[in-house]
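User: quick one, fold this
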Amino acid sequence: MHTAVFSELFPLFHAASPETIDWLLSIAVEHEYPADRAVLMEDAWGNAIYFIESGWVKVRRHVGEDVVTLAILGRGDFFGEMAILDESPRSTDVVALSPVKLLSISAQRFIQTLFRDSQLHHRMLQLMVRRLRQTNYRFQLRHQPPALKLVNSLVALGENYGQPSGYGTEIFNIPLKDLADVSDISLEETTRIMDKLNSKGWIRIAPSQQAIYLVHTKQLAHLAGRV
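Assistant:
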């Protein structure tokens, strides 16, 4: 992967120096996983940070005998940073939702790079704070109607990872159980709301393309309270 492509694909590296990006590309390791394959396991020690070159993954946690999806990540994002920054076992699993291509950088070398490039270090802090704000926002929505919470999840996925298409913003056809978990609503509510949005034409569900198209993004953003 060329330096310019790498920098454009991963927002974390937008402010990094060309020398930093060249160094990271020289030490990055490529991985490919099929759908449903565990990429990282909870309680494993963090020895690398991972960057999503293509595809979708879910971050999940075991709660007793249940498994709860905490987040859905797509192209251009990263995971595994918490375990390498605080040198502790991982607190979550990461599982491929679709076939994924990943780049990994060892914990030691990534930490060294953060210390060498102050712009990268600052950008890393910015993105981690952004994630914390998103978590806080989801917490603020806990008493809101289910439809608002679900649409917020769809809009956020579209904003963060969506790709333009002839039908609207395209995101992966995320399993309803995972959508329900990240939206903090029941599976029954998720099924009902998705069917309604699909029948109204605000979204278009295309299982054969493994895609959900956010057809009317302005209306969805308005419903989600983002405009």
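User: anything notable?
Assistant: Residues 3-139 form a domain with the Jelly Rolls fold (CATH 2.60.120.10).
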